[in-house]
Amino acid sequence: MINLRTVLMLCLFGLGLSATKTQAQEVKMKGAALWKTLADVSFEIKKDEYGDLYVPVFSEAINGVEGEVVEVEGFIIPFDGMFKPTELILSSLPISECFFCGSGGPETVMEISMKEKIKYTTKRVKIRGKLKLNADDPDQLMYLLTDGVFVGLADDSY
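C-alpha cells predicted for DUF3299 domain-containing protein:
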C-alpha cells in the first residue's frame, strides 16, 4: 500500500527530473543577439582542386555557442523543388536580401535539420536547436542547426 509520504516523494522526484530536463535545454542565445554574434566571422583563402576556397574562421564568441541550444529567428528560403519540411535553410534577412538572392553574406544563412516537419511560411519563424559550426565541408553552409524544433512565429520587433 502506498502512503501519502511515498506519493509526495515520487512527485518531488518527478519534478526534479522535469527541472533537470528543462535546464539541459536552456537556450544559450537567441534572436538578434545570435545573428549579431554569428556575423563576427572572417574568412581565409585556401586552395582545392577547383581553385580558391573561402574557409570560415570563427570568432571566440561564435565558438562559445557551438554545441549549445540556441533559438534562431529568420525566414525559410524556398528553393524550387528542394524545400523539405525537415531540412531547410533559414535566413536572417528577407528573401529579397538573403545570401542567395540579394546582398546578404554567408553568415546570414543557416542549414536546419528539424525533428518534425514544418510548414512553409513567408513570415519570420523561431526555431530552437543545437548549433554546429562547419569549416570543413564546402557542400554545406557554415552554420548548421540540428534537432530543430519550431517554436512559433517571430514578432515584428526585430
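The chain has one domain: 26-153.
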